[in-house]
Amino acid sequence: MSAGRRNPPDGPSRERPLEKSATENGAVARQYEKWVYPFPIADLDAPEVRSKRDGGDFARNWHTFWPDRPPREDIDVLVAGCGSNAAARYAFNHPKARVTGVDLSSSSLAHEAHLKDKHDLRNLTLHQGRIEDVSSLDRDFDFIDVSGVLHHLPDPVAGLKALGGVLRPDGTIAVMVYGQYGRTGVYMLQNMFRLMGLGQSEQDVVTVKQTLASLPKRHVIHDYMSRAPDLKYDAGLVDSFLHRQDRAYTVAQCLEFAAQAGMSFMHWWENILYFPEGQLNADHDLYKKVSAMPEESIWQFMELYNGTLGQHAFCVCHASRPKKSYKIDFGADAFMDYVPVLRCAEIKPDTPVAEGCVVVRRQPRPAYTLNPATSALFRKIDGKRSIRECFTASGLESKDAETICRASFRYLWRLSYIFLRIPSWDGTTQP
């Protein structure tokens, strides 16, 4: 990755507020000053905290963000809209990284500062201000995490453009925005509470709780509530039901959003949500019809088929970044030289499976039984062998090797059960 021309050579810049433009995001700032969000973590070293990582964590998803290069820890990270915990979590989990956190809320940043002092996070710098004004940091970054933030901006496109302005040429932005269809019930209740004239007072939160408890069992919000742990505390209720600046996106709108900001859409973080392999029976005509669609149409179909996606998580990069450095292309000549990296493990099946079949699982995703050919290939994945080498080591007959490999590895990749590394520029694979 390229060195940042604007980054100071001797550690992170001193902490200071961002320069502010004339327009302030006042309503959102006031909300998060009073209702600190998310729920503040008391100790980053607690086992239940250490065992969990944010989905956009650059180490967890390295091969999605940079499939053409080996993992590194010593990178410059911006957590845009870091809230009460996220920047400190990155700094704690990645001590070699230089982490910068930016947020509107001084209350949230106060807790980030508490965690910084508690854990002696010398690699963490915090700034109060708007994402739109991030250029005033006079820094640039390898990786930017902006999760659950852009959909609260008055102009999300302007926010993403601003982040693109501080992203290095080969950098990646991990984005999470709300999903429209999965939050249908949320927006119904937001409208209902506006009709009631609710604001964001303590008594208004009591009214929200009373209303939720009295809703009919058939109400669409109940399914969402079963999947939303944030609703267990008051700030989460305010963030969901009493927010004054909130929009959501469909798959098509996510793609348009990236394009409007002048960025290239790279990949989803979790392919399993956007492809039929994990949700449709491959023997049915429906699967065959969906699989024959263009890829972007498949994503849109699966969003509508699923119906419960309350968020969309994807990554973008500069339009100038070469697509061959991140695009996984199953029709490319280089496909057989991709290197599969496991994201799942073989498990003991609960019920008998056919001879030669392997059952795999990646928590909290379901278990899947692989067919004999995919099972033979799966058992040869070690993170070093290319697809071609996995096939040779598997003992499968060489006839139609590429056809077998494309079907098997595409299946595993679309399940999000493997990453695929791309051969480096000189024609070799990365170490």
How would you portray this structure in words?
- This protein is of the alpha/beta class and 431 residues long.
- It has three domains: 26-180 and 248-325, Rossmann fold; 181-241, no CATH class; 333-421, Outer Surface Protein A, domain 3 (Alpha-Beta Complex).
- It has 16 helices and twelve strands.
- The protein has a seven-stranded mixed sheet with strand order 3-2-1-4-5-7-6, sandwiched between helices.
- Helix 5 links the parallel strand 2 and strand 3 (124-128).
- The longest helix is centred in the C-terminal third of the chain and has 14 residues, at 401-414.
- It is globular, with a radius of gyration of 23 Å.
- It starts with 25 loop residues before the first helix and ends in a 10-residue tail after the last strand.
- The model is unreliable at 5-14 and 425-431 (pLDDT under 50).
What's the layout of helices and strands?
Blueprint: H1 26-34, H2 47-50, H3 62-65, E1 76-80, H4 86-93, E2 98-103, H5 106-118, E3 124-128, E4 141-147, H6 156-164, E5 167-178, H7 184-195, H8 202-214, H9 221-226, H10 234-241, H11 251-260, E6 263-268, H12 285-291, H13 295-306, E7 311-318, E8 339-342, E9 345-347, E10 359-361, E11 367-369, H14 372-378, H15 387-394, H16 401-414, E12 418-421
Parallel strand pairs: 1-2, 1-4, 2-3, 4-5
Antiparallel strand pairs: 5-7, 6-7, 8-12, 9-10, 10-11
